[in-house]
Amino acid sequence: MPESWSAKRERQYQHIKESQLDKGVSEDEAEEIAARTVNKTRAQEGESDDASRTSLEDKSPSERGGERSHSGAQGRTKEQLYEDARRQDVEGRSTMTKDELEDAVEDR
Q: Residue 39, exposed/middle/buried by CB under 10 A (0-12, 13-18, 19+)?
């Protein structure tokens, strides 16, 4: 558990991870989905020092109810992919399409 997570957030993480594992998602992907969900909730509730604009302006995970999940029809939004590309320091990301951003982020 990261030091900045409260006991409540750790329980939330474990619940989401277990739910994903029950759906047949791999351990690594379940951990990633759970961590992203908890961190987004923390950002939206003002518990995080660093938060991306997409985390603050997007619907909360509970409101979204699985929309745009990793396995959903559309996947992540272009803005979410751009933020991942920025964190990975992908060159030329500002002119990339959503499909190009998906490819660039997955290749790393």
A: buried
CA-wise closest residue to 7 among 43, 63, 36, 47: 47
pLDDT digits 0-9 by tens, 8-28: 888 999 999 999 899 898 999
**What are the structure tokens assigned to 73, written together?**
């029809």
Closest to 16 measured CA to CA, from 41, 2, 35, 43: 35
Q: pTM for the full model?
A: 0.50
| Tokens 């990975």 -> residue | 88
* Nearest residue to 97 via CA among 76, 75, 82, 107: 82
Which string of b and e fits 57-96 if b means at least 16 CB within 10 Å?
Answer: ebeebeeeeeeebeeeeeebeeebbbbbbeeeebeebeeb
